[in-house]
What we know:
Layout: E1 5-9, E2 24-28, H1 60-75, H2 80-94, H3 124-128, H4 130-142, H5 152-160, H6 172-182, E3 198-199, H7 214-217, H8 234-245, H9 273-280, E4 284-285, E5 293-296, E6 309-316, E7 321-327, E8 338-344, E9 350-352, H10 356-360
Antiparallel strand pairs: 1-2, 3-6, 4-9, 5-6, 5-9, 6-7, 7-8
Helix pairs in contact: 1-2, 1-4, 2-5, 2-6
Amino acid sequence: MSQPKSLGLVALIAVPGLFLGPIMTMFLLLTPATPAVADCGPAVSVALPDESTKVYGYDEEQLTNAAAVMGAGKALDLSVKGQMISVMVALGESGLRVLDYGDGAGPDSRGLFQQRDNGAWGSYTDRMDPIISATNFIKALQGVAGWELLEPTLAASKVQRNADPYHYQKYWPEAVKIVSALSNSQFSVEGSGCAIPGQSGAGDDYPWKNSPTWVQVGAGAASTSPLGMYYRECVDFALWRVNQQVGSTSAPFKFLNATFRPDGQVLGSALTWKAGWDAKGWPTGSTPRVGAVVWYAPGTGGADPNFGHVAVVKEVRDNGTYVEEGYNGNPAPEDHNYYTRTVSSTVPTSFLYLPIQEEKK
């Protein structure tokens, strides 16, 4: 078991009348039980279609091609979500038929995935082969950083570079239906974790690291950041990271304390961040993902008993731990400075995810 580390956490916001409670120095025990790293669903095996295999609206040729796509995914250990994305793209590009012609935007496009004759997708024979073309698509999909976190149509568009990134959206329900029908195992794509090992962030690039805190100058305009939170509090750093991840790095910022929620309420202290995510319809879960906001309910993992704490996932490791970064996570006199620490993935109350590509559109 790792040694306990002191964790003084307080989450304050720029709201008149807010009680500015003392920082509580408590203990966060880093006790990874080496849980299995979650994935984004199993790589399901395909049951090859025969005369008894029926999926309304699709003939044997289409189902055979879908099975070839799924088989290519299984061979590459692609998750069920990835297999569905692959079938979705083939539906959107060719209707699950091996087309020997292109269209106006790509007259040299061929095959299930309408892959161009640009050298990236192999020879003409490769592009016309369901398994090879699917394999090449899947390898490109797996090369997209964080693709499992994206909406399926957006992940697909990262590979296909469709002019309309939402082109494939309408094919998703059919892809789910087809993969479910052709799979020889039971699965669910809902609620699965997706711990993607990796790391992100440039360290302490918080732009107001030298600004005065409310402790130094009092709670007011002088201690309030452009985001509407108090300088150098955990919530201000986390909201900075949220803005940064959607490409908003200077005023006017996309997300502010006062405007984040669509219901007119402020995002508020760490206490109410999970509610803010829920109000916005953004996803949450129990698995760390790089860039996600870490949410500690009051008293959890040494967090302040009144306000809780928020931080950001900087790195995900393969031993059931992650590295978090943030502000105001240490006892005085380092309480309003940047910190990082390794935490067991089971300690936080929840992880708050960003639908990054959706917010950039």
